[in-house]
Design brief:
about 120 residues
Length: about 120
């Protein structure tokens, strides 16, 4: 079963992502802030990460920067953000992330993007 880390501070979004992933037979793991996400990424292996940008304790971009500085090998990452500004998309691309989902999500495209990133489509 593929393990997917969800780094999301909004409880409703977390529940939605978690339930969708569970329904699709993935193993979702929760991190409610950037620091918790960082600790989980350092201690566990994931097949995919869903990452919010606006997070408490450490933003999504700060998390990515810290992992990059430490040369931590990352699985595919999907940015899920309510702020779909071009600047954020460019910044995500600078980390090699090309998948950007705008919240509120479209469930079908969310599932499709996840399957594509996991090589299942």
């Amino acid at each position: 079963m593929k393990k997917i880390l969800i780094v999301e501070d909004n409880e409703l979004n977390m529940k939605l992502f978690y339930d969708i992933l569970q329904f699709q037979n993935y193993q979702p793991i929760k991190a409610m802030d950037g620091l918790e996400g960082y600790e989980k990424i350092k201690s566990e292996n994931f097949d995919l990460i869903i990452l919010d940008i606006q997070l408490p304790k450490m933003t999504g971009f700060q998390l990515l920067e810290k992992l990059k500085e430490e040369n931590i090998k990352l699985p595919p990452i999907i940015i899920a953000s309510a702020c779909a500004m071009d600047e954020d998309k460019r910044k995500a691309q600078s980390y090699g992330i090309n998948d950007y989902i705008t919240k509120p999500i479209d469930i079908n495209s969310f599932v499709k993007t996840i399957k594509q990133k996991l090589g299942e489509s």
